[in-house]
Amino acid sequence: MAIGARMIQGFAISVSGLMAQSKRLAVSADNVADMRSRGVDPDGPQQQPGAFQPKRVQDVTTSGGGVRGEVRPVSPASVETYEPGSPDADSEGLVNRPNVNLAEELVTQIQAQRAYEANAAAIRTQDEVTDTLLDIKS
Fold first, then answer.
1. pTM (2 decimals)?
2. Are strands 94-98 and 78-82 parallel, antiparallel or unpaired?
3. Over the range 105-119, which residues count as b (16 or more CB within 10 Å of their CB) and which as e?
4. In this structure, are strands 78-82 and 67-73 parallel, antiparallel, or unpaired?
5. How do the pLDDT tens digits run along the chain, 138 residues long?
6. DSSP percent split of the chain into helix, strand, coil, nearest 5
7. Phi, psi of 94 (to 5 degrees)
8. Residue 28 and residue 109: Cα distance in Å, rounded?
9. Which pLDDT score is estimated for 82?
10. What is the dihedral of CA 103, 101, 32, 51, to 10 degrees?
11. How far is residue 62's CA from residue 67's CA, in Å, rounded to a whole number?
12. Are 123 and 66 in contact (CB under 8 A)?
């Protein structure tokens, strides 16, 4: 493989990391925003309009050496909480809420931020190396 092709591949790998971390942050933000929504009822029908299904992003290595973020549902989708005053509560005062842990989501967001920063730094370094190579060639 020619040097130019390897350099472009290096940029592509870092960009794939940026995109995967952007997706991870967006999915985590959705989880936090909807953590007080009505959760999926495990005994309910297949389609449950208005029920929130929390998700996670898993990194999957691509054939070119990059990474792709795949969105997958959290299992179990919901947990029962005791909220007798909620309009969604059953006769026992239980409500299905999305299975979202705020502390875990904050850690996920910090990890996504750090990984994003690392990929951005790799792109800056690759850019500097490219500039240096072009200066040497001229």
1. 0.84
2. antiparallel
3. beebbeebeebbeeb
4. unpaired
5. 565 566 677 788 999 999 999 999 999 999 999 999 999 888 888 888 889 999 999 999 998 789 999 999 999 999 999 999 998 899 999 999 999 999 999 999 999 999 999 999 999 998 888 888 777 766
6. 50, 20, 35
7. -95, 140
8. 7
9. 95
10. 180
11. 5
12. no
| 30 sits in which H/E element | helix 3-33
Per the listing, tokens 């795949």 go with 70
Listed in sequence order, the residues at least 6 apart from 9 whose beta carbon sits closer than 8 Å to its beta carbon are 1, 64, 65
44 neighbors 128 (Cβ within 8 angstroms): no
Name the residue with tokens 């999926």.
40
Q: Which amino acid is at 58?
A: Q
What are the structure tokens assigned to 134, written together? 């072009």
Single-letter amino acid code for the residue at 98: P
Asked if 119 and 18 count as a contact pair (C-beta separation under 8 A), the reply is yes
